Amino acid sequence: MHFNSTLKVLKTILLTFVLILFGFLFSNAQEIDNGVDSTLVAAPKAIPLAAIIQNIEKTNEDLNLVERKLEASKAVHKIDSLYPKFATYIDKQQEQTEKVLKSNPNRQKIENLYTKWNGHRIYLKGIEDDVNDFISRNTRLLETVDLHYKTWKLTLENAKNEEAPTEILNRITDLIQDIKTLEDNIIKENNTALKLESKINFKIELINEIMESILTLKNSEVYNLFHLRHKPLWAVSFTKKETNASNSLSDTISESVKESGSFIKTNKNSIYLYLTWVLFIAGIIYFLKRGFEKYKFEETDKNLQISKDVILKHPTASTVFLALLIAFIYFTGTPKLFENILVLGLLIASSYVVRPQIKTHFKNLYYVITFFYVLDSIKTYLWFHSGYYRIYLLIEAILIGVAVYLLFKKLLHTTDDTVNSFSNFLIKLAPSVYILVFVALSSNILGYTNLTDITLKICTHIGVITVIFYSLLLIIEGVSTSLIHRHFNAKAVIDYDKKLALEIKLMKIIRIIVLCLWFLFFLNMIEILRPLSDFLRDILSEPYKLGSITFTIGSIISFILILAASFLLTSLISFVIDDGDGVLKALRLPKGIPAAISLVIRYLIVAFGFVFALSALGMDLSKFNLLAGAMGIGIGFGLQTIISNFVSGLILVFERPILQGDTVEVDNLLGTVHKIGVRSSKIRTFDGAEVIVPNYNLMSNNLINWTLSDNIKRIDIHIGATYDADPNRVIEILAKTGAEHKFVLKTPPARALFLEFGDNSLNFVLQCWVHYEVSLVTKSEISVAVYNAFKEAGIEIPFPQRDIHIKSMPINNMLDQDKSNTD
Predict the structure, then answer these.
(1) Is the bond leading into 727 cis (omega within 30 degrees of zero)?
(2) DSSP secondary structure string, 687-756?
(3) Helix ranges restricted to H, 617-702
(4) What are phi and psi of 273, to 5 degrees?
(5) Which DSSP letter does residue 247 get?
(6) Residues 522-568: pLDDT tens digits?
(7) 3-class SS at 27?
(8) Residue 800 belongs to some domain of the structure
(9) Distance (Å, rounded) from C-alpha 480 to C-alpha 460?
């Protein structure tokens, strides 16, 4: 509740300041664009004669720096020299693709062709971006050099007018010539890069056309799932050779190996960065493992125990799995063989994570999944006569049916309560596989081979993606559980209920996210994701007009998602950078500094998130200038209290007169600071009430902080003894009782003092220093101990005595008063 109220106030304040700031920036930008203000553009000016020599040296240093930057651009020259070879390779691939498309390939080979050309496009787009960056940098360098050229031209004219020495004029002339030479070199480099960029762009357009033709063929009637593509199996002739297929067209393994090698060579720099990420992930995993070893994990929830075991018992497998998965995502446009190797590696790594969680009857599951994945992938690298290809599909379908039967025959009617959710899912999956196998057999026999291809792909790949995503789920759950476990156990006081609730809630969120990813991957596997995404993209990008405002559904969704992501990120920052107990604990910062760092980061995230959300919405921030000014006036008149509380909150955070957890007393209110917010702070009193105190009140009123520098407090116990008691004995008993209590500090020591001779007693005081948190309990226990010690020593604690004197009254008055009362 407090966080939500904070965000509401913060949204109002930040919106105003952001609009004013960006309105000012946009107005300046418009003035520059319109030529009204040119303060940001340096104008060439003649250098005074007395400063010419110093500026010649400075200009030479700038020119040397520009030359070094030009020398550092060897990669572009290397690209220019290697491009003809790659262009020739693309031309050969185009010819081969045209032959493949004419050879009536199956759906899988069509998809593989599209993937291959998409990889070529990604590679060329990366090169194009590098060349474009080179051109942009050279353009900036050219502007700098041109400024020097114009400046020294004016300086030369000025020096001639002032009749400077010939030596000075010659040095200026030589410098101008050097600048001109460097300028010509930059222009030459830019022209070369522009030509290369044009060539690359031409090839990218060619690749786009090839990919479009592949998609057109794939979406044609020939590749419709229910298109009768071949004759029934009994009518196929196995003796007649097909003329549209030849071994020269085959995507052989040797060619795939060459493509994979070429891919590795062209991505050397990316591989180095990737290895750095792998080392970082390995460090995180083993850091989390040490957290489980250092802090005892006491949760009894079965799923949480599994999450702990994944990190604690299988850190190497988890690291390898994440490394391979990142490689699968990081290296886009990979060759098919490279992709298959990564999938096999993921299966091997996931076996160490998943196998302990499945029933022992499924111990051969990984061998079955791997075998059929390899069996189905072989079709990528081999070309068959159509008849033999259908026999291959027939054998594959039969083997799948037999394997599933042998694997599940003992479990189809099991009533074992020990079967976990994943094993139960596999058991329920068996009937679906039988249906798919039956569809594959019947469609293949009848000639509907497109349907056969897709059903067999589902049968052979569904187990692969399920196991991989289940492994991903277990590892992410393990990481989240270990992070929460380490975070809470690092605190002095652990809220186990809050810890358990957060672990379970985060686990549910992770499962929903992984399930959505699995579903999207499944749609991509059955080749539905691309047309579905194109359909949704068309809907989301459709423009709508409301008055003078034009918007799209996609921009509105982007606006909402950016804001939601900003708020979620602020919550994460608040959780991670906790005061004294978060990730900054190792830095040993003073108390309150982590909270200030967290506050600044969260405010910046929310501010920039709001600006980016407005940009995603397509709103021109320069149109808010007038509105920002009006809101500024509104703040001056109507929001003074909010602004004063906001500024006071910032002062409290950075000056740190009070900190979260301090015991404070303000306006007769005594309690513990629970939260310091942007507008108000929350104080929890000792009777359980939570009081919202505006920050301005904390800054303007007298504030007592009992625990600012330390949490030590002195308690005074006043007691009296009769005049018959020995004061020395009383002081001895009091001092001993105070010193013996477990909560009383040894330094400064407890001391007993004689105060005064009272009306009815000798008055003493016992002063003890204790921690504030136990002050009330200590005072109570010491008071009881003093009473018992006095009773044991025979010392009496007197009570106040008063002598009452009744003044005598006349008898007649008393009789008259009694008579009136009787009447």
Answers:
(1) no
(2) TS-EEEEEHHHHHHS--EETTSS--EEEEEEEEEE-TTS-HHHHHHHHHHHHHHSTTS-SSSPPEEEEEE
(3) 625-638, 640-655, 695-700
(4) -65, -40
(5) G
(6) 888 887 888 888 888 888 888 887 766 777 888 888 888 888 888 88
(7) helix
(8) no
(9) 31
Same domain assignment for residues 523 and 550: no
- Which pLDDT score, from 0 to 100, does residue 819 have? 52
441 in the same domain as 346: yes
Would you say 342 and 327 are in contact if contact means Cβ atoms under 8 Å apart? yes
E strand or H helix at 466: helix 449-489
36 part of a folded domain = no
Asked if the model's pLDDT at residue 625 lies above 50, the reply is yes
- What's the structural domain count of the chain? 5
Q: Which strand (E) or helix (H) includes residue 446?
A: helix 421-446
List the single range of 317-321, 513-517, 656-660, 757-761 with lowest mean pLDDT: 656-660
- Give the separation between CA 587 and CA 582, rounded to whole angstroms: 10
Burial of 613 (0-12, 13-18, 19+ CB in 10 A): buried
Residues 6+ apart with CB under 8 A from 186: 66, 70, 138, 141, 142, 145
DSSP 226: T
Q: How many residues does the chain have?
A: 823
CB atoms inside a 10 Å sphere around CB 177: 10
How many Cα neighbours within 13 Å face the side chain of 668?
Answer: 0
The whole-model pTM stands at 0.70
β-sheet with 663-666: strand ranges across: 690-694, 680-685, 669-676, 663-666, 704-705
Q: Are residues 270 and 404 in the same domain?
A: yes
> What's the CA gap between 465 and 520, in Å, rounded?
11
Residue 405 and residue 452 share a domain: yes
> Which residue from 700, 719, 732, 739 is spatially nearest to 799, judged by alpha carbons?
719
Q: In this structure, are residues 333 and 120 in contact, taking their beta carbons and an 8 Å threshold?
A: yes
What the block records as the tokens of 167 is 């030596």
Look over the chain and give the mean of its residue pLDDT values, rounded to a whole number.
78
Q: State how far the Cα of 611 lies from the Cα of 620, in Å rounded to an integer.
A: 11
**Token pair belonging to 457:** 């792909």
Vertex 417: Cα angle to 405 and 458 (nearest 5): 35
Q: Parallel, antiparallel, or unpaired for β 762-771 and 704-705? A: unpaired
Query: Of 705, 735, 764, which residue sits at a domain end?
Result: 705
**What is the spatial distance between Cα 729 and Cα 720, in angstroms, rounded to a whole number?**
13
Does residue 646 form part of some domain?
no
Contact between 353 and 317 (Cβ < 8 Å): yes
Smallest Cα–Cα separation from 733: which of 782, 680, 669? 782
89 lies in the same domain as 103: yes
Can you read off the two tokens belonging to residue 339?
């992709």
Q: Across-strand partners of 423?
A: none
505 class by beta-carbon count within 10 Å (0-12 exposed, 13-18 middle, 19+ buried): exposed
The answer to whether 483 and 289 have CB atoms below 8 angstroms apart is: no
Which pLDDT value is given to residue 809? 55
Written as six digits, the tokens of 689 are 């009430």
Closest CA to 127 of 180, 86, 184: 86
Residue 625 sits in the same domain as residue 716? no
Answer yes or no: do 185 and 61 share one domain.
yes
Mutual angle of helices 593-616 and 553-576, in 10-degree steps: 170
* Residue 645 tokens, joined: 């509380």
> Tokens in use for 559?
């606006």
The domain of 769 spans 712-793
- Summarised one tens digit per residue, pLDDT across range 601-620 is 887 888 888 888 877 777 66
Phi-psi region of 104 (alpha: psi -120 to 50; beta: other; left: phi over 0): left
Which amino acid appears at position 797 of this protein? I
Domain co-membership, 197 together with 276: no
What confidence score (pLDDT) does residue 37 get? 40
